[in-house]
Structure formats: C-alpha cells, structure tokens
Amino acid sequence: MEKNEKNVGYKTLAIVDPFGRLKVKVISNDLVVNSIKFCNYLYDTSYDMKPSGKSTYFNWDKGFGDITAEVDSSSKRSLNSSELMFCIPTNGQGDPLDICPRNMLLAAIRKLSDYDLELKVGVELEFYLLKQQPSSHNDYSNYEVNDYDGDYDFQQTMKIGNDWPQLQDALLSAGVEVEGYKSECGRGQIEINLRYGEALHHADNVIVAKHVIKDFYAEKGLICTFMAKPNINDAGSGLHTHISLHSRLTSEPAPATTVDRAIDGVISRVKEWMPFYAPNINSYKRFSEGYWAPTEVTKGSDDRTSMIRVIEDTTYRFEFRLPGADANIYLVLVGLIYSICDGLDLTVEEGTKKIDRNLYAASNTFGRSRTVAGYIGEAAQAHYLNLFISEFELANNVVSSCELERYLKHA
After folding, report:
1. 9 and 125 part of one domain
2. I need a labelling partner for 270 at 20 to 30 A (CA). Which of 6, 134, 231, 239 fits?
3. Domain check: are 220 and 366 in the same one?
4. Using CA atoms, how far apart are residues 234 and 56, in angstroms rounded to an integer?
5. Co-location of 132 and 275 in the same domain
6. Are 53 and 45 in contact, with CB atoms under 8 Å apart?
7. What's the domain count of the chain?
8. What are the Cα distances from residue 204, in Å, to 94, 222, 266, 328?
9. How far apart are CA 319 and CA 306, in angstroms?
10. What is the rounded end-to-end Cα distance, in angstroms, of the chain?
C-alpha cells in the first residue's frame, strides 16, 4: 500500500453480495491499493445480514475469515463525492470467487463470447415511493404517496418531474445514463429507463442506480422500495430486461434466427434458473393475474402479458419481463446468458407452461438442475440453494399478521 500525495478525499471499494447489494469499505484517497479484504460471511448472509452457517465455502466452523478482493480499476466512477470501484473477490488460490455474482456474470459473458456474440442490455427499473411512517407496517395505506392508479398520468408525472433534474444529475454524476421516466400504474410507483449498454457495465449501473435512488429519496423523507410486491392489491415492481445480441467482431445485431434460438433457450430453461429471477418469498406474490406480471412461460410479439415480449424495430430483440425489481441483475443475466447458450446449441426441449409459484418449489428445481450445475458448478449451485432455502425457512418460521387475524379467534 503506497501513498499518493496528489490525491485528497476518499475512495469506496465495493463488492456485490448474493442479493444484489453493495458492500463497501472506504479508504483515504492518498492510499494506492490493488486489493482489499472483506469478511467472507458477506456471501453467506440473507437480507437481515445473519449468516446461514451452512455453506461449504464459509461457515462458523471455518471461522468466517477474510477474502481478498482485487480492485477492478476499469469500473471506476464517482459516487457520493468519492471514487467508487468494484472489486473482484478471489478464493484462496487467487482465482475469482465463483459465488460472487459479478464474477459469475463475467464467466457467463466469456462463455457467450465462444459463440462470437455479446449481449447488450437495457433495464426498466420500477420502484415505489412511500411515506416514512414510524407506525406499524400492517396498514399500507399510511405509506401511500398518492391514492390512485397514476399510469402515464400527467399530474403524477409532473410531480415526479419536480425532482427529476436533481435525480438525473445524481445518477449521471454516478456514471448512470438514463433515457427517461414515467409514472407507473401502482400508487406511488415510478419507472426509470436506463440507457442500454454492454452487459457487465449495465449491471453495475443498475446496482449503483438502486443505491443512488434510495439515498436521493431518503433525503426527502421518502422510502424507495424495490420490493417486488409491497401491496397485494397493487401492481408489482419489475426489472424488465431488454436483450439484444450482437456480433463481437462487427457489433452488428445478430440475425433473427439466432435471436429466436436464444429465446427458445430462455423459455426452455426458465424454471431451472427461477430463483435468480425471483429470489425471495415476496417475489412470487408479484406473479398474479391482471397486474402486468407473467404467470406462464410464454412469448409474444409486442405482448406485455407474455414472459418474453419480442420487439421488432431497429433491431430484433426481446424484453424479459419475469424478474422482479428485487432480483440481483448480475444473477438475472447469468441465468439468461447460459439459457441463451443452450438455445444456440439447440440442446433445449419444450418446457412447462407454468412457472413455479413459490420459492421452495423454485429452489428445489434449481437445486436438481444438471444444467445449472454444469454452468456454475455443483458447489456454487449448492451454495445458492442453501441461501434460497434458508430464506424460505426464515419466512416460514414467522407467525404472520394474516395468520393471527384468521386463526387466533376462529381456529
């Protein structure tokens, strides 16, 4: 570690945890570092930061030591008056840690390059704004910032527009280009469209954008949530992912026949990668009729009721409408890329029309998949299976307010 006398301030070094959150260390900007250490328990924790202790990678018996993360200087950007750089966690032998979501995406991108193809991605990021309330979470109406469906609504759009210049500046200063925004159909729901680009850089942008948006509205006394279904009687929030395939040699769009084979791969393998698209209990409550979220494995031409919406304009591309806003974009793209590879290999078969409707069923399908094991390895598959099952068990071990309301007096 050396000193650089010309720099002042600080830099933020980040890794991404399994659920798509930035975990960071802040160091003085006059220190030049090529690597930094993080506690390895960050890859064995769920939303509440409690480790499962069951991973074969890191657990209580092994003492939850450190991992070394190499600084990826190519990822440098500004964030909150600091210099942010992503890091590449490594295993004990100096190779990239195979359960790090960002490393997993890098591996998938390399696999797709074997077909002389690259992925370009554009995400529609949906979220809700809610009032800060110190009271119980049970009465959702206390949190609503408006009381009607404001989809494309002029008044709601203009209300958002009052803050838009500052939010756009905050995103742009963090290196996140945006194409625009709209008021969505949920009460207090907003959609922001990120400028499309290369897969890894775009995934980094999605993660950074989530944190910037949350911080921006927190300063205004509002909660920004990317929860998939915060209100059962309102629309869920999606992470609609637009995908186009391009030649690595010429950057020209792939022909329609190639894209169709890629889509066939996604359709065939969707159940096997489902927890990467819907990672928690609440994710599955978004899949309900009449709320713009897919409930079956379908594709359609410019059809927003389909899981895959095929779009023909300047390029032949598709929108993957299955993931919720709570999904980890790196893992979403991992599942998509490997499914695309299977489609390109013509190794797919017609799958079921129904998606798994709960985390337990989806996790078991994921855990049995030889396809998943073949691509990410059996150890990484078992690690993520444990995280998903642990999340299910945690929620299953709680007596909900709904249960008390229905059964306390009447059972």
Report:
1. no
2. 231
3. yes
4. 40
5. yes
6. no
7. 2
8. 23, 24, 23, 11
9. 9
10. 65
**CA–CA separation, 310 and 293 (whole Å):** 16
Domain end among 41, 69, 97: 97
In tens, the pLDDT along 80-90 reads 788 999 999 99
Is residue 186 in some structural domain? yes
Instruction: Please tell me the distance from the alpha carbon of residue 397 to that of residue 144, in angstroms, as a whole number.
Output: 29
Mind listing the pLDDT tens digit for each residue in 30-72? 888 899 999 999 999 989 999 988 999 999 999 999 999 999 9
Write the CA distances from 37 to 19, 61, 95, integer angstroms.
Answer: 20, 20, 15
| Nearest alpha carbon to residue 221 among 143, 157, 169, 159 | 143
Query: Would you say 241 and 319 are in contact if contact means Cβ atoms under 8 Å apart?
Result: yes
* Amino acid code (one letter) for 140: Y
Structure tokens at 258: 């190639």
> pLDDT for 92-119, tens place per residue?
888 999 999 999 999 999 999 999 999 9
Inside any domain, residue 82: yes
Average pLDDT over residues 372-395: 95
47 and 117 in a single domain? The answer is no
Cβ distance 323 to 333 under 8 Å?
A: no
DSSP string, 317-342: EEEE---BTTS-HHHHHHHHHHHHHH
SS3 225: strand
Using a 10 angstrom Cβ sphere, with 0-12 exposed, 13-18 middle and 19 or more buried, the burial of residue 42 is buried
**Helix, strand, or coil here: 68?**
strand
Q: Which domain holds residue 62?
A: 2-97
For 344, which DSSP code?
H
Judge whether 346 lies within some domain.
yes
Q: Are 358 and 393 in contact (CB under 8 A)?
A: no
The β-bridge relationship of strands 82-89 and 10-16 is parallel
Euclidean distance between CA atoms 35 and 25, whole angstroms: 11
Position 209, amino acid:
A
Tokens found for residue 399:
């007596």
Q: Which residue stretches of 20-138 are H helix? A: 101-113
What size, in residues, is the chain? Answer: 411
Which tokens is 254 given?
Answer: 């792939």
Residue 83 and residue 186 in one domain: no
Q: Tokens for 255?
A: 């022909």
